[in-house]
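re: ur question from yesterday

yeah so i grabbed the chain u mentioned. its 237 aa long if i counted rite. heres the sequnce exactly as i have it in my notes:
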Amino acid sequence: MVKSRSIEHQFHGETLLSELVTADKARATIILLPTVAGVSDLELGFAQTLAGKGYNAFVADLYGKEFRGSGREIGAQQMKRLRANRAALGNRLLAVIETVRGLPDTGTGIVAIGFCFGGLCALDLARTGVDIAGVASFHGLFDPTGLPPRPIKAKVIAFHGWDDPLAPPAKVVALGQELTSAGADWQIHAFGNTVHAFTNPGADAFGNPATKFSSDANRRSWRALDGFLDDLFPTNG
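ran it thru and got these structure tokens back, copy pasting raw so excuse formatting
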């Protein structure tokens, strides 16, 4: 039976309000790192789907309890605040990991997946060298942190729209080179004729040609994530 509850946790005096969706006898726990809008129905829907597949899903609030439901404009301000200090952002993400590790029944391991800004956060988690099973970025931002590089322990997979103006081909190549230099086990899946936000059915309503839902890229990326998770957490038989 899938169950949901809110989890309050702290980071340097800030109260964060995340959502935990649990499955019976979870295979593993997946942390979902939201888009620029923060925790929304989009990620909560993804969490329900993942719980239905046998995973616990922790939808992480990165901005703060007071900003829940504030919308994309406020979210953009908070994203700018967090991106301004990537070292502090990395520490914030590591605090999320510790919160999840303190939960009961996390299964056999932890994976972090992120969307848009959350994709950058997933990659930044890997860049900290944290010892988790894997990270996945969906139409994420690829900008490096500018911090001293560390060996990457988590396996990395990135799903990318080739025509995404927020991560043009040169940044895709640079990410691959960065991950190779860090000794990572990595994959990048690029989808042609696809721009930013391709997993979000509401993306077309933003009125921005850079953001558009793609049913094909959405389906293919989630199917590939299933395979990635099966490799990380194989089932008997």
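noticed a couple things. The first strand starts at residue 3 and ends at 11. also The chain is about 35% helix and 20% strand.
anyway ttyl
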